[in-house]
Every structure is written in structure tokens, then in C-alpha cells.
Amino acid sequence: MENKWFVYAILCDNGSVYIGQTNDLLQRWELHKKGKAAQWTKKFPPLRLFYLEEVDSQANALHRERELKKTTGRRMLKELLQKSGSQAGEPAEKLLERIKNEKLGQAKEGKIRLHRRKRYEQKTR
Questions:
Q1: In angstroms, rounded to a whole number, what is the distance separating the alpha carbons of residues 16 and 120?
Q2: Cα(48)–Cα(93) distance, integer angstroms
């Protein structure tokens, strides 16, 4: 999953659709849930991840994100939501758990290296 990027769509609590891209879907979902990933999902909390594409580069992810944000892309996503009813695809937590397990498996096989992101906290005195 190294060099993999994801383009995704989230259904928000006001019925709107948030479209984004990331190379770390697990972390991005957690940030959306905490209201720290985007102003939109801070204002309108995410209900579920209902659309996901995997691409091989950031450039392709940005291109596909732009396509989905155009009228035809948004129309396609809205139709997908309508056709699938209220439970489109697998729940986000289940999907993200599956991706996490795939990453861990690849790390154990030596195909990828997992990096922990360091958090820098400002010390106040």
C-alpha cells in the first residue's frame, strides 16, 4: 500500500457529501471524526465513508478529486447514495480496519515500512 492514495466521499450529518484525498485513510478518517480534518466536517460531522477509490499517485488523486467535485462527479455520488439506500458499502470502521490489517501484513512481509508520526507539542510555562 506504499505509494497508494485514496479518493473518498463521506456522507455528512446534514446530507451533504464531503470529497477528499489522502495517502493515510485511517488517520484521515479519525481526524474527520474529531472535526480536525476539514472545516466542512467540523461543521457537519461525518456519518460514514460511502465511496472510495485507490490510485497510484498524489497527482492522480488530486485529478480524480477535482473530477468528483465537478457537477457530474457530485451527481454520480448522489445517485450512488440513492441507489444504495442508507447503508452504502461496508461501514467505515470495518473498511479502515481491513486496510489497517493489510498494511500490517505487508509490513510483516517486509514489503513496506510503517512509520509513526511524531507529535510535537508546544511546551507552555
A1: 34
A2: 9
* Rounded CA separation 64/94 (Å): 24
Q: Which domains can be identified in the chain, with CATH numbers?
A: 5-108 (3.40.1440)
Q: Look up residue 33 and give its amino acid.
A: K
Per-residue pLDDT of the chain (125 residues; tens, 9 = 90+): 458 999 999 999 999 999 999 999 999 999 999 999 999 999 999 998 999 999 999 999 999 999 999 999 999 999 998 887 544 456 667 777 777 788 788 778 876 666 554 443 333 33
Residue 80 grid cell = 450512488
C-alpha cell at 102: 493489510
Query: In a 3-state reduction of DSSP, which class is residue 8?
Result: strand
In this prediction the pTM is: 0.71
Which single residue is written with the C-alpha cell 481526524? 31
φ, ψ dihedrals at 109, nearest 5°: -80, -5
CA–CA dist 33, 49 (Å, integer): 11
Edge to edge, the sheet with strand 5-12 lists: 17-22, 5-12, 46-55
